[in-house]
Design goal:
alpha/beta, eight-stranded parallel β-barrel, elongated, binds pyridoxal-5'-phosphate
Length: about 350
């Protein structure tokens, strides 16, 4: 049954426009579960926003977006010769490959056509990319003519801390290899607006293009309303045994069956607002239900997160409501708090066609 994401269309689109207006070179990112919306929908929305480039996470994601967005496609994960999708798109004129190993760069440069490449400089994330010496060599290889150089990429750690010092140091190094003016573009991530402004001031030869997912699609959570459907409702008395695991009801109340389960990404832990150790200790001290192995669910009834009566099933979950809580009728929808990057909704419903 249905787990739905309701979207206040006006509000969401106004937010998207505002973010783009504040960062003209912005490159929307559509990857993974499409931030809850699905990559196809995000691709169409990127076209509507009028950007010229969309970033995807992997080569496998290209098929979902290529027919829905007309511009260039930047693949964020690095090109690898053993990946069939990477080979298939090797000379694709719309695809920009991110390259971070010299052997991969040589392979692309020596093969057919002139693949479009972005050279990735490793950052403190330590995930992918050339170190300083390798970048120097990469600059040499990419000058041989077998490639179209489309810029240098820096993938910075998650937002919240200033990366300015690190970016300046890495860009100085890029400039030192002679790449700066040749590439013209620095693809960055997770920089604040002031940081971008400061960089643009310091590096006038470079165009900074920020790849943004979360802050764009999920930057105004008040436009988003995830809801689950009440599927069934069973009154129980304290001590009644129920279902799979031979649990017994802790008190009088209601077992409420709602849509959304492991297949949707509904997890046993409350996905947000992790109570933390202190809260856990408090609840243990109070001998609360959660101390007895009852876990707070992401489903909300009468303004409160209700306990899971048992671990989520594949497509439905079972909640326990104490007797004082009025069970919502079957068919009604209730709010559910989700982590958007791990949730697969059955439907995404806009308040308007916009
Ligand atoms: C996923 C990704 C982003 C976007 O991350 P958000 O935190 O969702 O904005 C940016 N850059 C790179 C390289 C990524 O892989």
């Amino acid at each position: 049954m249905t787990l739905s994401l309701y979207v206040d269309g006006d509000r969401w689109r106004a937010h998207l426009r505002r973010v783009l207006a504040g960062q003209p070179g912005l490159v929307p990112v559509a990857k993974g579960n499409g931030y809850g919306f699905g990559n196809g929908r995000l691709a169409r929305r990127a076209g509507w926003l009028g950007v010229d480039t969309l970033a995807v996470g992997t080569y496998d994601e290209i098929d979902d977006v290529a027919g829905r967005f007309d511009g260039d496609l930047l693949v964020l994960s690095p090109w690898r010769p053993f990946h069939p999708g990477a080979q298939q798109h090797r000379e694709d004129p719309r695809v920009l490959h991110t390259v971070g190993r010299l052997e991969d760069l040589a392979d692309l440069a020596d093969g057919p056509g002139r693949p479009r490449v972005v050279l990735e400089r490793a950052t403190s994330m330590q995930r992918h990319g050339f170190d300083g010496d390798e970048l120097r060599e990469a600059a040499r290889v990419s000058g041989r003519g077998g490639l179209r150089l489309e810029g240098v990429a820096l993938h910075l750690p998650l937002p919240g801390t200033s990366h300015l010092t690190e970016v300046h140091r890495l860009l100085a190094e890029v400039a030192d290899t002679g790449l700066g003016p040749r590439t013209g573009t620095a693809w960055v991530s997770h920089l604040g607006a002031e940081e971008l402004d400061a960089l643009a001031g310091s590096w006038p030869d470079l165009r900074f293009r920020q790849r943004v997912g979360t802050a764009l699609w999920l930057g105004d959570l008040r436009a988003l309303h995830p809801r689950a459907t009440v599927l069934d409702s069973h009154p129980v008395s304290r001590g009644d045994a129920y279902v799979y695991r031979g649990r017994t009801a802790p008190r009088d109340g209601t077992l409420l069956v709602v849509s959304g389960g492991t297949a949707h990404g509904i997890a046993l832990e409350a996905p947000t607002g992790d109570p933390g150790m202190r809260a856990k200790a408090v609840s243990l001290a109070k001998g609360g239900l959660d101390a007895a192995g009852w876990v707070r669910s992401p489903y909300v009834v009468e303004g409160k997160h209700r306990l899971f009566a048992e671990p989520p099933h594949m497509q439905a979950s079972m909640l326990f409501l104490p007797a004082r809580v009025h069970p919502p009728p079957v068919g009604e929808e209730i709010p559910v708090r989700v982590r958007y990057t791990t949730t697969s909704f059955d439907r995404v419903v806009f308040s308007d066609p916009g």
